[in-house]
Amino acid sequence: MDAMYSGSCLCSQVRFVVEGFSSKVANCHCSMCRKFHGAAFATLVSVSGLRWVSGESLLKHYTAGNGTVRSFCSECGSSLGFRGRNEPLSAIEIAISAFDEDIPVEVDAHIYTNYKACWHHIADKLPAYGEGRE
Hints:
Blueprint: E1 5-8, E2 15-18, E3 20-28, H1 31-37, E4 42-48, E5 51-54, E6 59-63, E7 69-73, E8 79-83, E9 93-95, E10 109-111
Parallel strand pairs: 3-10
Antiparallel strand pairs: 1-2, 2-5, 3-4, 4-9, 6-7, 7-8, 8-9
């Protein structure tokens, strides 16, 4: 059996496991991700083999004006993920901070840096893209 990686929201009522991860993991600096995560950027990863262990009914979804959807726990408010317009919940990109253990991913880029917070300085040498990956 493949390795399973578990995650949860702050109150632990929403729990999930995944089997694997995309090799592309970016820090997203768009204003929507910044506001949704309350931080300078959000770090999200596409996953495979996602299974909701508990609390799927507690998930709430916010659809932004551009059609993208952000999902969070309705009990504690934890930001859990993002999906594109018209994408099913199974296509959610998970916030890597929601994992309960170390996961085998490495951030490889900054995206939507045209919208980054003026008070945040990107100090690493990762590729930075003004919009999505170009």
